[in-house]
Design brief:
Layout lengths: L1 H20 L13 E2 L7 E3 L2 E10 L1 H10 L3 E2 L5 H15 L5 E6 L8 E2 L21 E8 L4 E6 L4 E8 L1
Antiparallel strand pairs: 1-2, 2-3, 3-9, 4-9, 5-6, 5-7, 7-8
Amino acid sequence: MKMLAVSLLVCVMMALTTAVDLPETDPEKSDKVRISTVCPSGWTGFSGRCFLYVQTPLSWADAEKNCLSRGGNLASVHNIDEYHIIQSMILRITHTYPVAWLGGSDAEQQGTWLWSDGSPFSFSYWAPGMPDHYGSAYCLMMNYGDYKRFDDDACYHRYPSVCARNE
């Protein structure tokens, strides 16, 4: 029994030593998607950020407060890869593509979209004909319509949401 325990300990030490000795790759120069393992439990990591799908339907403002309490904001999306990672995360949990709040809003000035985390709103993925600001729609949700893209909706509606934070 002692020999088995010693063998197991040696294997674990070898695995840890090998993991430490692996060369670091520069994510800027890599053509592979970087998935992280340093995010808190339940969060999905991608390119230095952690994402969390919150299934509880909340208004946009309450969803943002919830994300703040978890150390982040409602998610900003900066490219199509991030959008698809978030969709994949939601699909693993729900087995579908429900609409969900993201951190975009143009409530301050209609037509000027801002992310709640302060990052530039340089990527958009609007569904055809959106945003339309129908019925005081100032908050951004994802997975809208047949194309599963961005839409604007009234901020008081209650939807699941996606939080994001830095690793």
